[in-house]
Amino acid sequence: MTEPTAVALDNATVAFRLADGRVYTAVEQANLSVAHGEFVAIVGPTGCGKSTLLNVAAGLLKPAAGTARIFDKPLAGLNRDAGYLFQADALFPWKTAIDNIAIGLEIRGTPRAEALERAHKWLASVGLGAFANRYPHMLSGGQRKRVGLAQVLIRDPKILLMDEPFGPLDAQTRQIMGNLLLELWTADRKAVLFVTHDLEEAIALADRVVIMSAGPSARIIGDWRIALPRPRDISEIRMEKDFHALHREIWSVLKDEVMKGYEQSSQAGAA
Ligand SMILES: Nc1ncnc2c1ncn2[C@@H]1O[C@H](COP(=O)(O)OP(=O)(O)OP(=O)(O)O)[C@@H](O)[C@H]1O
């Protein structure tokens, strides 16, 4: 039996009403799918609608036209199968690392002792076993991301929605986090939808890279299968010939859209 598609957006159009009453169509007729266990990255120019598509998959935004289906069922309300990791930290500043991780289970009614035991395992799997009692302000940006990842994964979502999760980190920490993400994903293949503006990061991580055009009315204009071998080290894979060939091919499509994106966003009243 074939597995149901984890995320399927069919002809999804998303529009926003602006303060002056005009309607801004951010995304038009986007078709996007993420298969069970597949890692898909969305790349596109700034402001094209990457987060908007992710928010549709999360059930935070309803398309004006088209449909969103999760495991072959129409999405109504929040996507309860998904865990969401944003660019900004979502940690409670008044809770320690361990309590930040355990809270997701405690909210669901898991007894505290059991929640803590599982949280310690997750803290160890993100390499922070010795930092259980640190508050978020006592952790580096990369360490906070690790806690954030554990906080999402402990709830065992079937789908991971990631919106530039490593955006604020320095280049080296980004690569370390990328490798950690791949290691955890390989152990338990969840469907991943990963938004990034960094084409190299997208190719290094994903099974498929999807490219969006510049907005308004952004569309999906390319979909590449990334047949690079796994397991991957995301620093080393960037040295490979096949990686360069893919990068060249995808960038040839993306670069015009990036330029259009900058022009659009610099025009008065663009959005
Ligand atoms: N609530 C809103 N009301 C009006 N316009 C919005 C709203 N949310 C997003 N937009 C517009 O929709 C477009 C897409 O926004 P979105 O945040 O999805 O882009 P993005 O590709 O994720 O951008 P970036 O790469 O800069 O993070 C942008 O032009 C943005 O200004």
TrEMBL record:
<dbReference type="GO" id="GO:0016887">
    <property type="term" value="F:ATP hydrolysis activity"/>
</dbReference>
<dbReference type="InterPro" id="IPR050166">
    <property type="entry name" value="ABC_transporter_ATP-bind"/>
</dbReference>
<dbReference type="GO" id="GO:0016757">
    <property type="term" value="F:glycosyltransferase activity"/>
</dbReference>
<comment type="function">
    <text>Involved in beta-(1--&gt;2)glucan export. Transmembrane domains (TMD) form a pore in the inner membrane and the ATP-binding domain (NBD) is responsible for energy generation.</text>
</comment>
<feature type="domain" description="ABC transporter">
    <location>
        <begin position="7"/>
        <end position="239"/>
    </location>
</feature>
<protein>
    <submittedName>
        <fullName>Mannosyltransferase</fullName>
    </submittedName>
</protein>
<keyword id="KW-0547">Nucleotide-binding</keyword>
<dbReference type="InterPro" id="IPR003439">
    <property type="entry name" value="ABC_transporter-like_ATP-bd"/>
</dbReference>
<dbReference type="InterPro" id="IPR017871">
    <property type="entry name" value="ABC_transporter-like_CS"/>
</dbReference>
<keyword id="KW-0808">Transferase</keyword>
<comment type="similarity">
    <text>Belongs to the ABC transporter superfamily.</text>
</comment>
<dbReference type="GO" id="GO:0005524">
    <property type="term" value="F:ATP binding"/>
</dbReference>
<keyword id="KW-0813">Transport</keyword>
<dbReference type="InterPro" id="IPR003593">
    <property type="entry name" value="AAA+_ATPase"/>
</dbReference>
<keyword id="KW-0328">Glycosyltransferase</keyword>
<keyword id="KW-0067">ATP-binding</keyword>
<dbReference type="Pfam" id="PF00005">
    <property type="entry name" value="ABC_tran"/>
</dbReference>
<dbReference type="InterPro" id="IPR027417">
    <property type="entry name" value="P-loop_NTPase"/>
</dbReference>
